[in-house]
Amino acid sequence: MAATHTAPFNPQDLSASSRYDPRYDPLVAHDPGAGRAYAPSYWVGTAGTPPPDDGPVQGDMDVDVAIIGSGATGMSTALFLAQEHGIQATVLEANQASWGCSSRSGGQGQNASGRLKRSQWIERWGLEVAKKLDAEIRGGFERFKELTQQIDCDAYDGGHLWVAHRPTKLDLLAREAKVMREQFGYRTRMLSAEELRRDYCDEREAAGAFYEPEGIGIHPLKFTFGLMRRAQALGVKLHTASPVRGWQTQGGVHHLRTPGGTVRAKRVAVCTGGYTAQQLNPLLKNKLMPILSNSVVTRVLTDAELKATNFRSQTFLTDTRTLRFYYRLLKDNRLQLGSRSAVTGAQAEDPVHKQLLTDAIARKFPPLAGIGIDYSWWGWVDMSHDMMPRITQPDPAQRLWYSVGYGGNGVSFSTLAGRRLAERVAGKDGGKAVFELPIYNSPLPFPNVMGLVESPVFAPFRRLGQRALYKWYWLRDEKF
């Protein structure tokens, strides 16, 4: 019988073992818990009742396909396996449905993949490959757009504004806008600071902006719940409170040990994003660099505050800082803003990280200085060591695939990734030229030094480098 849960959870109603753990850190924790409550995000507070799930695994079972992770990628993979290939997968979720990235992200659906821009695709792989990759990502974005029109997820199709936080960044934006227009055929354009403030919002730091029409802001948890309902209608099973705490492969069958029993799967797809534990599987160990991102959502803005900030659109914005701020007006007239956070989970609760965001609100929108914050949360972003995702089978000898490494650009890309991952799991990827693209034809790399040496030896020192880079990025963004 399915077990129904209701969001948001009241921490007072939970045992200590199932309460939200704000200090969880995937680099040091063995697993993210079993049945823990959601982070106190705006999305959880406003998504309504989640779809019924199948409760924890209870006893050993044999399945054809097991999917680990019930976020947008996991549920997309399950949906497309059932819808397009007639395969009913079993989804294993450590905590609550869509507990990780899909209930904590910024909800900004960009026409992107990973952290690299299209000009950087050209530098890395050449124009021909970059154009093929663009066609793939653009097609995925269009299918994401169709889904947002079919699923009630507060979708706002208003494009994306990339804001120059200093005048020296305008040339960077103009060059990228030109590349996207001339090489890829996009209708990008540059806006002056005056045009931005007149037509979108009075963002006081802005020296100008680059506008691209492709961009859809969504409520990411409502969207993933919509995917879940569709998948379940086709026979997909979702077991919550079922973390994979042991993994052995015997005779080609994967034995996934959960607290309630062992799931024996012929095929496994890993869709755990920034919550991928180091101990999950050797093929993923040290392949990701989890990065914390903080978000806040204000109280509802008054009419006077809306007028003072001249918000005329819910179009989302990101600025040109390396540790970028992302922000937008939500459907209910609250301001959402996020950026980087602590280096480790142990430091995540330090109020300095929330202060970074409230200070940014005061700089960007002075009339909102000191405004009340109704929601504050953080979550882990799955950063790959070469800034691009992978949807691949890392070892041809094992029937195991993963889709991870989105670098904060997974809101729209996750549905494309799920569709392609479903093709691979179903064995329908053979001979297709699209799977020769860089995001499909190689495993995630290990950390490297200066882009020259790739080795797991550097993994223990990643966070030392991260601390130093954060200091350098701040100096470069604010002083140079």
Can you characterise this structure?
The protein has 480 residues and is α+β, with helices and mostly antiparallel strands. It has a domain at 1-157 and 215-286 and 385-445: FAD/NAD(P)-binding domain. The chain contains eleven helices and 21 strands. The strands form four sheets. Strands 1, 2, 9, 10, 11, 12, 18 and 19 form an eight-stranded mixed sheet that branches. The protein has an eight-stranded mixed sheet with strand order 6-7-5-14-15-16-13-17, with helices on both faces. It has a three-stranded antiparallel sheet with strand order 3-8-4, covered by helices on one side. It is globular, with a radius of gyration of 21 Å. Residues 1-14 have low confidence and may be disordered.
Name some characteristics of this structure.
single chain, 480 residues, alpha+beta, 21 strands, globular
> At the third CATH level, what is the topology name of the domain at 1-157 and 215-286 and 385-445?
FAD/NAD(P)-binding domain
Radius of gyration: 21 Å
Number of strands: 21
Query: What does the average pLDDT come to?
Result: 94
CATH level-two architecture of the domain at 1-157 and 215-286 and 385-445: 3-Layer(bba) Sandwich
